Amino acid sequence: MKYPLNRPMTGDGMWCRVCGCTQQNACPEGCGWVQEPSYTFEVMGPLCTACAGTPNDLAFIARLVAKLLEAKPLRAITRKRLGLILLAAARRGEERASKERQD
Ligand SMILES: [Zn+2]
Ligand SMILES: [Zn+2]
Prior knowledge:
The protein is built from 3 helices and no strands. It is globular. The chain has helices at 38-44, 55-70, 76-102. It has a domain at 52-102. The longest helix has 27 residues, at 76-102. The chain is mainly α. The mean pLDDT is 92. Bound molecules: zinc ion (2 copies). Residues 16, 19, 21, 26-27, 31, 48, 50 line the site of one zinc ion (ZN). One zinc ion is lined by residues 16, 18-19, 21, 48, 50-51.
């Protein structure tokens, strides 16, 4: 699997790291940007609310973590951020799952 899944619209600024949606080319169900810490944003780029907590969101993170873990030496700050990035992704997954249980 390659991310973003769709090619971002050219010249439309930021795109979702998972699906490739942009401001002018949003997801069919409508979406916005997920608020994330700046270091997450710097490493991975933005994430849209339609992708938050989906299997693709988590798969993207898993791939990134695998790639960063290969980079040696792994700095303490990187290890800490990886932990926080994983934790945030787990929360997004749980949030989506609990929302789906309510529907
Ligand atoms: Zn998206
Ligand atoms: Zn989107």
